[in-house]
Amino acid sequence: xxxxxxxxxxxxxxxxxxxxxxxxxxxxxxxxxxxxxxxxxxxxxxxxxxxxxxxxxxxxxxxxxxxxxxxxxxxxxxxxxxxxxxxxxxxxxxxxxxxxxxxxxxxxxxxxxxxxxxxxxxxxxxxxxxxxxxxxxxxxxxxxxxxxxxxxxxxxxxxxxxxxxxxxxxxxxxxxxxxxxxxxxxxxxxxxxxxxxxxxxxxxxxxxxxxxxxxxxxxxxxxxxxxxxxxxxxxxxxxxxxxxxxxxxxxxxxxxxxxxxxxxxxxxxxxxxxxxxxxxxxxxxxxxxxxxxxxxxxxxxxxxxxxxxxxxxxxxxxxxxxxxxxxxxxxxxxxxxxxxxxxxxxxxxxxxxxxxxxxxxxxxxxxxxxxxxxxxxxxxxx
Length: 382
Prior knowledge:
By secondary structure, the chain is mostly beta strands. Helix content is 13%, strand content 36%. A hairpin with a 4-residue loop joins strand 3 (50-60) and strand 4 (65-69). The termini are far apart.
């Protein structure tokens, strides 16, 4: 079996350095998220520098000691994790995608991340998504999760997948607080339910019932307590419930594991463009081409309205002594499932012109983070 590999650092105290618990306390946040190893593997950019709680089996082989969950493997280093606990464990700490750090970041030297890159990748420094690291504050024996709950589903969804469950939690709208790294994109009524440090998606039914009709885009509606009945599903690192019934309920116990934290987690990274067709600066592009732009995060479809612009390079018109005219009108459509914006133009581009597509300020992700400014240029052929 081929395992996907995540690399985690379970850090012990260094000679002459401050104690491990003091080092790690600054890394831990009160915004901790219960997650799976699959989620960390699928969305390293979202979880980068966030405090997380994960479960897995502690195993040792010729490579080393590792956390294992399904087909995802989390290599660990440091004596504390090995010596204290064996078998199924629950680990807490801060997730870092090393390739997203600057090499002069203090954590690089403190935790030997450059040496880790050499050991694992045989390179001085990893690229993004190549060397995820978990700086662990605690590893303990995993207590059995007997009853289904939001937290149980977030930590061990495989135990409940395909089974009917009934859980309760706070309504969080369509990921309005950035609880989740992406959306299942089943319908415009998909929403998140949250309890303590855990959250899952709910799909299949709109949040409406006797005495309530909640708007997935309105923060004013969040905080309402709902009881969800349905079947547990997982896909692409996401956990969701295919709802059969939804009703209002009274608040339930909201206390997670007790822990000391001192720092608020940084927001998720800003969304950015990860791919386009035509590609940047491509030449000899077909005059009939459609433009497709893919994003790193789930975007708010409505935010594209009025913020997508197309033009020919004005310098070419000046140099050639021709009028500056716009490209043909276009329709912009956002595909939530693929995180893809498509521009369909009503007619062909002019030959031998450079087309500029701009995504203006105002385009935002689900959690209201603004898109990194973006401009795409390509040249039409003859």
